[in-house]
Structure formats: C-alpha cells, structure tokens
C-alpha cells in the first residue's frame, strides 16, 4: 500500500468517504436516528470543521511553507503554534469534523462509519508518511513536537 501514500488529496478522500457514507445510508436498512434540528446541528459541526481546516492554512501562509499534502518533504518550516499546540493534524481533524457534520445530517448511524474510514485512511496513507518526511526534515524540532502534541487530539 506504500504506493498509495500521499497520492490522493485529503479533501478528495473526504468527499469519497462522504459519498460512501451517503450511499451506505441509502442502501442499508438501518434505523434513522432523528436528531433535533439536524440542519443546525450539522451546520455547527461543519462550521467547526471548516475553522479547524482553514486556521492552519493561514499559519502555513504566514511562515511561507507549503500546504500541499502530496509533497510533505517540501515543507520549509515546522508550524507548532496556534491550533498546532493541541493537535498535530488540525486540517485533517477539520476534514473529519466536516465529514462528521454532513453524516450527522443524514441521521443514519451507518453513514457515520464514513468518519472512522476517513481517519484510518488519512492516518495510514497521509499522516504517517508526512511524519516520516517531517522527522527527516526537522529531526529534533519534530521529535519534540511529537512528544508535546498528540496526532489527533
């Protein structure tokens, strides 16, 4: 599976997992879990996810490093401030949160399985290769960062 590492853009994977969740919710004979004000709840979760996804991009822009997840070795700076004090992967956490919000709107427990599918894929085929690249590029700084901050939360 190494050939798949950092090949699929994470936003595309989020959309694919969303499509899988949607199809699963329509094809599965599972129960619908009625949520109070599903659009408001889902919208709030999506807004949190978008914020988690966009704030780190601004931090990357400020230090003039790449935000391209397909080329982690091209990083010119290690960002460890702002939301990065709480999670090493706020953009992916944001994407998972956006996905969770959309799946909540469907009110189908089976649709929510798209979220762990996304997390597993991103962890194995995106985050782990990024960690190797950042460890090679910033050995001491990234090792200290990994000790201080968790991968997801």
From TrEMBL:
Subcellular localization: Endomembrane system
Bilayer topology annotation: Multi-pass membrane protein
InterPro entries: Phopholipid_MeTrfase
Single GO term (MF): transferase activity
Signal peptide from the UniProt entry: none
Sequence intervals crossing the membrane: 12-29, 35-55, 67-86, 98-122
GO CC terms in record: endomembrane system
Keyword annotations of the record: Membrane, Transmembrane, Transmembrane helix
UniProt keyword annotation of Mitochondrion present: no
Top-level lineage group: Bacteria
Principal place of residence: membrane
Keyword Membrane belongs to the record: yes
PANTHER family given in the database record: PROTEIN-S ISOPRENYLCYSTEINE O-METHYLTRANSFERASE, SLR1182 PROTEIN
UniProt protein name: Isoprenylcysteine carboxylmethyltransferase family protein
Lineage of the species this protein comes from: Bacteria, Pseudomonadati, Pseudomonadota, Gammaproteobacteria, Lysobacterales
